[in-house]
Amino acid sequence: RPPEWPGYYGVDLVALPGVDILADLSEPLTALPTGCVTAVKTRHTLEHVPDLLGLLAELHRVCCHDARIE
């Protein structure tokens, strides 16, 4: 997670600084329950996900009704 995004959790495949949740974005986000996410910020990520539609379906599942995705 970039330092300019306080309050967010960093999600990545590799345990780097700022990564709070290790996850392969091509797989289900099993560490996150349904409807638990209120906002998603991403940059330079989506173009690297081979199964983008699968990730979007998972984001739909984990995001609450009025979540914001940027």
SSE blueprint:
Layout lengths: L10 E2 L8 E2 L14 E4 L11 H11 E7 L1
**Average pLDDT for all residues:** 92
By DSSP, the count of extended strands is 4
The dominant shape is: globular
Distance between the termini: 14 Å
Strand content: 15-25%
Strand order of the largest sheet: 1-2
Order of helices and strands: EEEHE
Helix content: 10-25%
**Unreliable stretches covering 5 or more consecutive residues:** none
Total of helices: 1
Biggest sheet overview: 2 strands, parallel
The radius of gyration computed from the alpha-carbon positions, rounded to a whole number of angstroms, is 12 Å
Class by alpha and beta content: alpha/beta
Describe this structure in words.
1% of the residues are buried. The chain has one helix at 52-62, and strands at residues 11-12, 21-22, 37-40, 63-69. The protein is built from 1 helix and 4 strands. Helix 1 (52-62) links the parallel strand 3 and strand 4. Helix content is 16%, strand content 21%. Strands 1-2 form a two-stranded parallel ribbon. A two-stranded parallel sheet has the order 3-4. It has 70 residues and is α/β, with parallel strands linked by helices.
